[in-house]
């Protein structure tokens, strides 16, 4: 593509992008599509000759777009959001234009130093200890795996990296029973084994019970296991339960166990002073992950791992073959040594754009707006005789379900699942679910960049309209 054509196409495309962002709520949140429907519209082999750009772009609009879930739709209330914002999108455009591969300081000094600076900003804005250091990973899954590998190497004197597991007893990792599946996956990959993830029972608020954690550790020590790491959650994925990290931290210190805090979603709330209580005791932990790509208006992917002592991570991952060695290695951060990937994207740029565009106060204002909308939705649900909220709502995730006296849990589960499916089928809003104590609950997460009161009102009316009817629920 010659540069003149690029200029023309880029202008067209930016116009399309602006139109999309203006009109995003006019799309169905989720596509009405059968498996294979997109695939059969795509030719079974790659074109031998280059195609006209008009046709490529037309196919994007006609074939691809109808098969997309619109994650930026203000009525997307499912999972956790992956919200973005205009400054973040613009930064992504610049990043892809530069096309830099930022594995070392030398491969783009600005990328490394900007990453250091914005992560210090974020650390301080969230009230994390000022001596900690951060690194950007693609996802919380990778960040947590990296932390667990660093924990494994620290406890074994960096020997498993060298010579494998021979001679070591089995390791144990602890979490609440509401742990995210990425921890199971990390234990598979780290060679620790998923069965060695010990899930500690939770209290009525779905938070880990520290006394039971300590008992489990003691029992394992007696049996000869090596307690390696506790992964606590600030904001579980099911219900945003807040584990008591202060007490967990005491236990970890007592038994010399690595404490990793998974604040993937809720970590953004720490920008608000009124949520600092959640972080109390974090200074006793070793690592802490949170995803700006969930609730901080920064395009997926961008996950931040903070560490008390980055040298454990660096010692775990650093490998410098001759072709990567530079004369400056002693003086600079080479972020390739802070994780699994060698090649790295320039993700700090979008964080920098987002933080500077909104300012910390602008970010706080948006978060408080989401929290205020959530309070409204909670009030509506609480006032309804056939609805109940099954978990505390410390942030912006509401777990609720339809109830009717005399119906079994099984029947209620069926009714709630059907209700949610009917709401989602309209394409006007999108919810996902979880199970709490075997009960199917709908999760309503209010965290989209452009969500306003009209969106939650419309969603509420839609929920009421599709709610199981009295005459249909009996029997
Ligand atoms: C979303 C989430 C994760 C996984 O995040 P990825 O960045 O998609 O890997 C891990 N832990 C918790 C608590 C989460 O909410």
TrEMBL record:
Pfam families per record:
Pyridoxal_deC
Keywords of the record, alphabetical order, are: Aminotransferase, Decarboxylase, Lyase, Pyridoxal phosphate, Transferase
**InterPro entries tied to this protein:** Aromatic_deC, PyrdxlP-dep_de-COase, PyrdxlP-dep_Trfase, PyrdxlP-dep_Trfase_major, PyrdxlP-dep_Trfase_small, Pyridoxal-P_BS
* Domain of life where this protein originates: Bacteria
GO function terms (MF aspect): carboxy-lyase activity; pyridoxal phosphate binding; transaminase activity
Q: Which GO terms describe its biological process?
A: amino acid metabolic process; carboxylic acid metabolic process
Could you tell me which residues carry N6-(pyridoxal phosphate)lysine?
294
Cellular component annotations (GO), alphabetically ordered: cytoplasm
Cofactor(s) this protein cannot do without: pyridoxal 5'-phosphate
* Family assignment from sequence similarity: Belongs to the group II decarboxylase family.
According to UniProt, the name of this protein is Aspartate aminotransferase family protein
């Amino acid at each position: 593509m010659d540069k003149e054509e690029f200029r023309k196409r880029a202008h067209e495309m930016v116009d399309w992008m602006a139109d999309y962002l203006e009109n995003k709520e006019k799309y169905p949140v989720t596509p009405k599509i059968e498996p294979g429907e997109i695939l059969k519209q795509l030719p079974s082999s790659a074109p031998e000759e280059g195609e006209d750009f008009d046709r490529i772009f037309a196919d994007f609009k006609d074939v691809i777009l109808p098969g997309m879930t619109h994650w930026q739709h203000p009525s997307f209330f499912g999972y956790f959001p992956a919200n973005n914002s205009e400054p973040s999108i613009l930064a992504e455009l610049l990043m892809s234009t530069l096309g830099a591969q930022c594995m070392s300081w030398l491969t783009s000094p600005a990328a490394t130093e900007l990453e250091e600076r914005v992560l210090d900003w974020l650390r301080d804005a969230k009230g994390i200890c000022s001596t900690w250091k951060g690194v950007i990973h693609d996802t919380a899954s990778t960040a947590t795996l990296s932390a667990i590998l660093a924990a494994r190497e620290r406890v074994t004197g960096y020997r498993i990296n060298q010579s494998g597991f021979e001679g070591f007893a089995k390791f144990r990792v602890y979490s609440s029973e509401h742990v995210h599946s990425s921890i199971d996956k990390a234990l598979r990959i780290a060679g620790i084994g998923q069965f060695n993830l010990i899930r500690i029972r939770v209290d009525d608020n779905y938070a880990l019970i520290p006394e039971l954690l300590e008992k489990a550790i003691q029992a394992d020590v007696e049996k000869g296991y090596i307690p390696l790491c506790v992964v606590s959650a600030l904001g579980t994925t099911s219900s945003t339960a807040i584990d008591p990290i202060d007490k967990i931290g005491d236990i970890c210190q007592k038994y010399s166990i690595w404490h990793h805090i998974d604040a993937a979603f809720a970590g953004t709330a720490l920008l608000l002073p009124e949520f600092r209580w959640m972080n109390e005791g974090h200074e006793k932990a070793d690592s802490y992950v949170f995803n700006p790509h969930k609730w901080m208006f920064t395009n997926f992917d961008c996950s931040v791992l903070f560490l008390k002592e980055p040298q454990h991570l660096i010692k775990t991952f650093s490998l410098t073959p001759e072709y990567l060695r530079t004369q400056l290695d002693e003086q600079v951060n080479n972020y390739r040594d802070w994780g699994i990937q060698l090649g790295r994207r320039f993700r700090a740029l979008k964080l920098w754009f987002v933080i500077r565009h909104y300012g910390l106060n602008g970010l706080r204002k948006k978060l408080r707006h989401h929290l205020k909308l959530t309070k409204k939705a909670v009030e509506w649900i609480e006032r309804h005789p056939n609805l109940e909220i099954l978990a505390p709502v410390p942030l912006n995730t509401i777990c609720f379900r339809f109830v009717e006296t005399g119906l079994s849990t099984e029947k209620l589960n069926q009714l709630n699942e059907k209700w949610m499916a009917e709401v989602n089928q309209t394409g006007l809003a999108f919810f996902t679910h979880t199970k709490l104590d075997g009960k199917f609950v709908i999760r309503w997460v209010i965290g989209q960049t452009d969500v306003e009161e009209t969106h939650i009102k419309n969603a509420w009316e839609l929920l009421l309209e599709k709610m199981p009817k009295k005459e249909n629920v009996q029997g």
